[in-house]
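Most newcomers find our protein records easier to grasp once they have seen one. Sequence and backbone structure share a record, each on its own labelled line. To make this concrete, we reproduce a full record directly below:
***
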Amino acid sequence: MRKTRVDELPQFWNVLKGDMSLVGPRPERPVLTEEFSQQFADFPKRLRIIPGITGYAQINGGYDITPDAKCKLDNYYIEHFSVWFDIKMLLGTVKIVFTGDGAR
C-alpha cells in the first residue's frame, strides 16, 4: 500500500474541505516546520500557499532527498506555478503510483 502511495487517499477529504490542494509543497510536521524555518531562509515561502497531496519535490526527489533540496524544489514550484505545471506534476504522480517508481 505504501509503495503505490494509496495510503494517502484519505487526504482527498482535506482537498474537498479546502485545507489542501492536489498539487503543492507537502505539509511538514509542526516540529519540522519550526526547525526548517530556522535552518533554511527560503523555507517560510512554502508556508504561504496551501499544501498539496503531491508536489514537485516528491516527484523529483521522493523520499531520498535532503530537507534543503526539498525546500529548493518546493520554492522552484512556487516561483514557476502554472496550471500546466500542475497538470505535468499530476501526470508524474500517476506514473509513480502505477509504476512504484520512487517508492520505499
Strands lie at 21-23, 52-54. The helical segments are 11-17, 30-39, 56-60, 67-79, 83-99.
